[in-house]
Amino acid sequence: MASEDVLTEGEIDALMESVDDDTSAADAADDGQFRRFDFAAREQSLLREFTALGPLVERHAEALGEALESGFSIEFTVRGDTPSLLTVADAVASLERTVAVSTTTLSPLAGPVFAIAPADLLSFVVNAYFGGGSGGPAESARSNLTPTELRLAERIAEFQLSSMINSWVDKLPLEAGEINTLGMPDRLEMLPASEMLLRIAFTLSAGDFSSALSVMLPFAALEPYRERFAPPRKQDDVFEGQTWEPFFRRELPGIELEVAGVLATQSIALADLLELEAGAVIPLAPAEQVSLKVDNVTLAEGRYGSFDGVKAVQLHRLASLLFPAAS
């Protein structure tokens, strides 16, 4: 039973259709049945706490432009876009038909990191760097990347990651792992479709040409370091110099102190303290109830009494009356 789905696929589809019908969220909440919760809005609110990402992206864009110009002798104008959050499913859907996806790691961040380079940018770099026309084949006519474009995509990914590492060093030192570049987003599609990714995107332009680059990493890997990207906390005012001295001189005389001291210590026996002698009798009040137990099992209950002039225990409840007979 535990291994079976609670709802069939058809039931799930019907449930989702009922949620997306004409009934508004407010109307549904009025009848007390459910309340919608926007998980994407929660993630976006968390991203607003990473205020340092904006300046870091600007530094990243500047360093990336210098790296591309140094590596390919092409003067790109690189502009950093506002960092955004999106699910893996949305990230895959946003990719162009032909794209290079470079996969690596950035320790200490957990999980894979993806550097995305579209085919039009790779074709432009090939033609500008090695000589050729003003652009590559039309995207609609392309279904895959050439080996040269894949090598250039990996080189561009190195520029993206190295400029990111240099830009983030003050906030979070990073170290890139081995890069693997493919002409398809297979490794990106292997992640859970609902997992949230942080996308750091750039718009590149050179003359009349314009394209984009982006880096995507799991947002959950960045959350443990949220404090490093949060706005600085306002520090409390601190007394400096000798400003504290008048305060203590004014307040100390009025503070009450309790002083305690030990004059001497002495060891004494309890018998001496109670003045007990041989044959002394200490009266002990007998217990009102007495229980007869064997191995912590109560067999009888009673009370103190006497019989034929001697002390005895009068039993008034036996085990057969204490415990009901087993059915």
From TrEMBL:
One GO biological process this protein is involved in is: bacterial-type flagellum-dependent swarming motility
Entry membrane topology: Peripheral membrane protein
Q: Which UniProt keywords apply?
A: Bacterial flagellum, Cell membrane, Cell projection, Chemotaxis, Cilium, Flagellar rotation, Flagellum, Membrane
Annotated Gene3D superfamilies: CheC-like, SpoA-like
Q: Show where the Flagellar motor switch protein FliN-like C-terminal domain sits.
A: 251-318
Provide the GO MF annotations for this entry: cytoskeletal motor activity
Subcellular location(s): the record lists:
Bacterial flagellum basal body; Cell membrane
Q: Name one GO cellular component term.
A: bacterial-type flagellum basal body
Q: Which Pfam families match?
A: FliM, FliMN_C
Give the UniProt family note.
Belongs to the FliM family.
Stated role: FliM is one of three proteins (FliG, FliN, FliM) that forms the rotor-mounted switch complex (C ring), located at the base of the basal body. This complex interacts with the CheY and CheZ chemotaxis proteins, in addition to contacting components of the motor that determine the direction of flagellar rotation.
Q: What protein is this chain from?
A: Flagellar motor switch protein FliM
Taxonomic lineage of this organism?
Bacteria, Pseudomonadati, Pseudomonadota, Gammaproteobacteria, Cellvibrionales
